[in-house]
Amino acid sequence: SLSSVSGDAAAAAALRCGLARARMDADEWEGAHADAEAALSCASELGDRSLVGDALLRRGELLRLRSSLARAEDDFSGAREAFGQADEWAGDARAASGLGSIAWQSGRYEEAIALFEEARVAFDGLGNRAGEARCLGGLGIVHTERGDHKEALATLEIAEEICRELNDRVGLARTLGNKG
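^ thats the sequence. predicted structure below, dont judge the formating
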């Protein structure tokens, strides 16, 4: 039936997004890019805005890590648009955080602070403590780069507390590294 075909295609797109993440973690950049592209193509054909957002978010993360900041920014912006159309607020918060990272890496610190704070508030409202901690970590880095070490330390201490509460060892290691 048509619904089972579209369900299979949606599952395939979601799987390719997951594979792209796993390949990014394994430094398999070309495979990650191919998976993200396949996920985006499939999601676009389906017209599933949430899946399109996920695929754009994944490709944007990959591009950001590969220092293609302008292209990553386009993907994160496209993801925000897609997630907004799908009323997918967690995805929108992830995309806002991605845009915060781009703004930080581009030296647009005020914009980065606004985006990380927007995402943090959204994650807080959704009860996503891990997302909130990641945004606080981003804010801490930006405050450090701006020379506001007191604010950076206060922000990173909150992130550390959340990571400890969640027993998030990776987040904790990242936060402690950022505290220096």
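Residues 141 and 152 are 7 Å apart (CA to CA).
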